[in-house]
């Protein structure tokens, strides 16, 4: 799995950090954007990362390559 984020579309909802805290920072950075902690997370984090991408209100999170 390879994840990317588009900072231009982020609306700073914070859902991603609550849903997948091992992949996304729990707190948004000072500039209001999400912070990607692990662009290639271990397989154990894939379900949470997929859910965070699916529930992102601005479609900021992209799964570039999905291993499943």
Explain this structure.
This protein is α+β, with helices and mostly antiparallel strands and 68 residues long. Helices cover 22% and strands 13% of the residues. The protein is built from 2 helices and 2 strands, in the order βααβ. The chain has helices at residues 15-19, 46-55, and strands at 2-5, 61-65. A two-stranded antiparallel ribbon has the order 1-2. The longest helix has 10 residues, at 46-55. The chain is globular.
Characteristic terms for this protein:
about 70 residues, alpha+beta
Which helices and strands appear, and what pairs or packs with what?
Elements: E1 2-5, H1 15-19, H2 46-55, E2 61-65
Mean pLDDT: 88
Q: How would you write the strand order of the largest sheet?
A: 1-2
Main structural class: alpha+beta
| Strand runs, count | 2
Q: Gist?
A:
By secondary structure, the chain is of the alpha+beta class. It contains 2 helices and 2 strands; from the N terminus they run βααβ.
């Amino acid at each position: 799995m390879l994840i990317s984020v588009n900072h231009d579309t982020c609306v700073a909802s914070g859902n991603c950090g609550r849903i997948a805290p091992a992949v996304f920072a729990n707190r948004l950075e000072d500039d209001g954007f999400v912070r990607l902690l692990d662009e290639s997370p271990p397989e154990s984090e894939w379900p949470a990362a997929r859910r965070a991408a699916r529930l992102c209100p601005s479609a900021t999170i992209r799964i570039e390559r999905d291993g499943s």
